[in-house]
Amino acid sequence: MNEFLAGIDDPFQREKTEEVFNWIKHKYPHLKTEIKWNQPMFTDHGTFIIGFSVSKKHLAVAPESVTITHVEDDIVKAGYDYTKELIRIPWNKPVEYSLLEKMIEFNIWDKANCTTFWRK
């Protein structure tokens, strides 16, 4: 994860991304941090919980489409742009940690008995 963070050129973006990762590690210490497909993600018992990517304009959050549908109203309330697969948190907006928490909690609960990396 440190290698990924070191690769973020903009110091503000690196710090904000690191803050999000540290929040997740502190709140969900049982989640494993991994880099797959050059993207940082958090997993639980070998199943995907949430992933991230960095672009010039935003931090992208990918919790899987089922989860986005589950929290769609909260995404709209936060004012974030989103697609069926990812949510874009603009660098100039605050991170809505309650939204991240809702997505992570839902995925941990919904995938408790999941035996595959992705939902089927």
Automatic annotation (TrEMBL):
Residue span(s) of domain YdhG-like: 13-108
Source organism, top-level taxon: Bacteria
A Pfam family per the record: DUF1801
Protein name per UniProt: YdhG-like domain-containing protein
Species whose genome carries this gene: Heyndrickxia oleronia
